[in-house]
Amino acid sequence: MIITNPVLPGFYADPSIVRVNDTYIIANSTFEWWPGVTLHASTDMVHWKPLPSPLNRVSLLDMKGNPPSGGIWAPDLSYADGKFWLVYTDVKGMDGGFTDMMNYLTTADSIEGPWSEPIALNGVGFDASLFHDDDGRKYLVQQTTDWRPGHHPFNGITITEYDVDEQRLKPESMRRLWNGTDVKVVEGPHLYKINGWYYLFCAEGGTRWEHQEVVARSRTIDGTFELEPDGPFISNFTTPDFPIQKQGHGALVQTPGGEWYYASLMSRPWRHADEPAHGTRGWCTLGRETSLQKVEWDADGWPRIVGGIAGQVEVPAPSDAIEMQVPDIATFHDDFSTDELEIGWNTQRVPFSDAMGSVGGGALTLIGQGSLVDRFAQSMVARRWRHFEFDASVCVEFQPNWYTQMAGLTNYYSSMLWSWIYVTWDDQHDCRTINIAQCDNYVTTVLLPEGSVSVPEDCERVWFRTRVRTGRYTYDYSFDGENWQETGVWLDAKLLSDDYAADRYWGFFTGAFVGLACVDMTRYGRQARFTEFDYQAVEAAAESCADSADEV
């Protein structure tokens, strides 16, 4: 069997990987998306089955008001003493040079929960991980923040002992473990003890094109850590034309047969044909994904990526892999027949609740709340873009009576970057109309002339569709679900990328989603009924974005 990277396509960043018996489990960051932390399991490293997210109740995670790309950063999943340990960070903001956050610990006997009430650890720095030493002691290893003017905001890696009996850290034990290299921005630490050495894996260089992973080691946990020679461990900085970019920030795992693999974040940029090669390597609309690379140890005991530091797109699966079957991610249909949202649906910051709507009986009903930039009360459910090219459609029943009541289909990166096609009320023509809006860095533009697409008075249902074609995407509508009308508006997909967001705000860590939303800014709770959601990946050559198409 062959591992093809990415193993988790779409926004699955900052992987932490652990093996329990013959099963591998990956935990990923979710930032402001709910539920917190995604989990996938595999017995062959090729096929990955989604599991219920662990942070699925407000007592474990409350992100109301968190900024874009705040929330869950770099969870750490480990297994020791017969149970799973999950350390996670909830970042509340990074304004004014201050990083406001709290690190938490929760445990569970089973990976599917239930997970214990959280233990608050500290706010020293994000990307915290728990190291279980072979003498039974445990340590929190973390990035260290520094707000002071004139100081680098990433102030090395610190280590603090954790008291299992008292369920708290020992602040008096906190000390600097490693300063990192001159590349700076050292973060994402994971500590391992292998063959008598303590190996410290850390990310550096930021999470863009300069991203890399480095390794240092020491004979003792309180000794001096020596940097791996001929590093970094993994990086794509010197391979700008390689299809995989940004690798780094990940975790190490050993197979039952003694083979080693490294789970890493990665991205796959694309660039418009008329864009110059200089300036950017492209736009990563699928966000930071998860790759797996094979690792071998050299004669001096240093880990090396098989094939070189750039990694490989295709990697041999473990020789003792147990093949498994998982659902195909190329297609997804939801008839909303169950009374809970299927795994893969997400909301912003808070769980799906009665205030937001209901699901079951063949429909998803959303109760209109705040706009798509609202951080406190929003009625939207969304799924990750898993492919560069796909169609997604849904049927909407909505009867607005005011122009601030809207319901429809959205492509969404964050509260600052999104677009959607929606039904609303046109008070100039006294009828329901369809329009398209795009938000670019909190500047919202309506893209169709007011009243240009009216909904027939006797039409109870409207179908919306988006067609995403790598660098461009568009919206269509239908009044019968069969005869589709093109709006003629093609939007630039780069606005939904990490790289576009990074030039405007520090929150550029997620990826594009497709979702369903209902807005009622009158706060009278106008409801929309959604049925027949469908997602279908298409071949890259199925339809090109013609140069003559109108682009906004």
TrEMBL record:
<dbReference type="InterPro" id="IPR051795">
    <property type="entry name" value="Glycosyl_Hydrlase_43"/>
</dbReference>
<dbReference type="InterPro" id="IPR041542">
    <property type="entry name" value="GH43_C2"/>
</dbReference>
<dbReference type="Pfam" id="PF04616">
    <property type="entry name" value="Glyco_hydro_43"/>
</dbReference>
<protein>
    <submittedName>
        <fullName>Beta-xylosidase</fullName>
        <ecNumber>3.2.1.37</ecNumber>
    </submittedName>
</protein>
<keyword id="KW-0378">Hydrolase</keyword>
<dbReference type="InterPro" id="IPR013320">
    <property type="entry name" value="ConA-like_dom_sf"/>
</dbReference>
<dbReference type="GO" id="GO:0009044">
    <property type="term" value="F:xylan 1,4-beta-xylosidase activity"/>
</dbReference>
<feature type="site" description="Important for catalytic activity, responsible for pKa modulation of the active site Glu and correct orientation of both the proton donor and substrate">
    <location>
        <position position="127"/>
    </location>
</feature>
<comment type="similarity">
    <text>Belongs to the glycosyl hydrolase 43 family.</text>
</comment>
<dbReference type="InterPro" id="IPR006710">
    <property type="entry name" value="Glyco_hydro_43"/>
</dbReference>
<feature type="active site" description="Proton donor">
    <location>
        <position position="187"/>
    </location>
</feature>
<feature type="domain" description="Beta-xylosidase C-terminal Concanavalin A-like">
    <location>
        <begin position="334"/>
        <end position="536"/>
    </location>
</feature>
<dbReference type="GO" id="GO:0005975">
    <property type="term" value="P:carbohydrate metabolic process"/>
</dbReference>
<feature type="active site" description="Proton acceptor">
    <location>
        <position position="14"/>
    </location>
</feature>
<dbReference type="InterPro" id="IPR023296">
    <property type="entry name" value="Glyco_hydro_beta-prop_sf"/>
</dbReference>
<keyword id="KW-0326">Glycosidase</keyword>
<dbReference type="Pfam" id="PF17851">
    <property type="entry name" value="GH43_C2"/>
</dbReference>
